[in-house]
Amino acid sequence: MKAIRDAEYMEFSHMLGGNIRFCRLRKFKPQKVLAHVIGVTHQNIQKYEAGAIMPTPFRLKKIAEYYNVKVDDLLSPTFIHEQTKANEPLSRSIHDSN
């Protein structure tokens, strides 16, 4: 059976790949480390991050466990924003009131 890869599928796979990449870069780890931990090649990790392929549910669970996040976090389109919003500059600093 051939997989359907419509625009919605492609958008989702790119979002998932971005979330996986975000987690990896946040831990300063190369793709080969994650690949070894979940039992795939680093080329598979490259494809996951690029949105070319999606990990199986088993591998997705292993990725979430390795990065100490929930599978739902990896599947969330707002995950990166939620993780980085604490680092956003304030709209108005204390110095602006002087």
Keyword list:
6 helices, mainly alpha, single chain, 434 Repressor (Amino-terminal Domain), 59% helix
Gap between N and C termini: 66 Å
Give the biggest beta sheet: none
β-strand percent reads: under 5%
Count of discrete alpha- or pi-helical segments spanning 4 or more residues: 6
Helix content: 55-70%
Radius of gyration: 16 Å
CATH topology: 434 Repressor (Amino-terminal Domain)
CATH superfamily: lambda repressor-like DNA-binding domains
Look at the structure and give the CATH class.
Mainly Alpha
Mean pLDDT: 89
What global shape is seen? globular
Low-confidence spans: pLDDT under 50, at least 5 residues? none
The CATH architecture comes to Orthogonal Bundle
The secondary-structure class comes to mainly alpha
User: How many β-strand runs?
Assistant: 0
Domain count: the total is 1
Helix and strand pattern: HHHHHH
Description:
The protein has helices spanning 7-26, 31-38, 42-50, 57-67, 71-74, 79-84. The longest helix is centred in the first third of the chain and has 20 residues, at 7-26. Helix 1 (7-26) crosses helix 3 (42-50) and helix 2 (31-38) packs across helix 3 (42-50). The N and C termini lie far apart (66 Å). The chain has a single domain, classed as 434 Repressor (Amino-terminal Domain) (Orthogonal Bundle), CATH 1.10.260.40. The chain contains six helices and no strands. The chain has 98 residues and is mostly helical.
